[in-house]
Design brief:
Helix content is 48%, strand content 15%. It contains 6 helices and 7 strands. The protein has helices at 2-40, 43-68, 81-90, 112-129, 137-142, 195-205; strands spanning 77-80, 98-100, 107-110, 149-154, 163-167, 209-214, 220-225. The strands form 2 sheets. The chain has a 5-stranded mixed beta sheet with strand order 2-4-5-7-6, with helices on one face. Strands 1-3 form a two-stranded antiparallel sheet. The N and C termini lie far apart (40 Å).
């Protein structure tokens, strides 16, 4: 019991450190831009304040998902994964990135809100980390890659049917593929280090297994197995 308490305390300390660090960044951006906007009377600075607030909201949502764990997952509804993926794409800032869903994705029993969150975080990871071309000033500021192609497909040949989310970006090196699921691990200054750990926890709460491989186009591919097909 004492070992378990020590382990939980270490996780809480790590969690608090990551969250406090990630919250400070957008708060400092908002303060700086607000001060500049007031001094220079330039509305562009207020746009950046709004972006910082959006980032804070995203971090708060991620924190709540991580803190509540399986308590926020209620996998009791029949959901069409393809439809959820397309809806989630519409809620993410994707710039000039494109989504392709060439296959009929499986229908399964899941929590639609949490699975939507899973897709949103994966899509953000693809467009923020998979830079394949030149960025404009706007995309560089937002962290969105200019021309990433994201594909969501079905694992028809796998022993346990499932799905994948892949991109044609720079990929994730093998030594980092397990680390990216750890709290605070990110290779982008725009990343929070919370998105992929949330993806893993949502997947595990549904009984799914998630792994990372290289996509057919040399980017990152997130593979979800053990998905119960209806």
């Amino acid at each position: 019991r004492e070992r378990e308490l020590r382990r939980q305390n270490r996780r809480l300390d790590e969690f608090a450190s990551v969250v406090s660090h990630e919250l400070r960044n957008p708060l400092e951006v908002a303060r700086t831009r607000l001060r500049a906007g007031r001094e220079l009377d330039d509305d562009d600075h207020f746009d950046h304040v709004a972006q910082a607030h959006d980032r804070l909201e995203r971090i708060i949502q991620d924190v709540l998902t991580l803190a509540r764990g399986e308590e926020v997952v209620d996998p009791t509804e029949t959901v069409a994964l393809g439809r959820l993926a397309q809806q989630a794409w519409e809620t993410v800032e994707t710039g000039d990135a494109t989504l392709s869903v060439p296959d009929t994705l499986p229908t399964t029993t899941a929590d639609p809100d949490r699975v939507s969150r899973l897709f949103e975080n994966l899509f953000r990871n693809c467009v923020e980390h998979g830079a394949t071309g030149e960025r404009s000033d706007d995309t560089a500021e937002s962290g969105v890659s200019a021309d990433v192609r994201v594909t969501v497909g079905r694992l028809a040949d796998e022993p346990s049917d499932g799905f994948y989310v892949a991109d044609d970006g720079t990929g994730i090196p093998k030594p980092q593929r397990n680390k990216v699921f750890e709290l605070g691990e990110t290779t982008s200054r725009e990343g929070t280090g919370l998105g992929l750990p949330i993806v893993k926890r949502i997947a595990e709460a549904h009984g799914w297994k998630v792994t990372i491989a290289e996509s057919a186009d040399g980017g990152a591919e997130f593979i979800f197995n053990n998905v119960e097909i209806r």
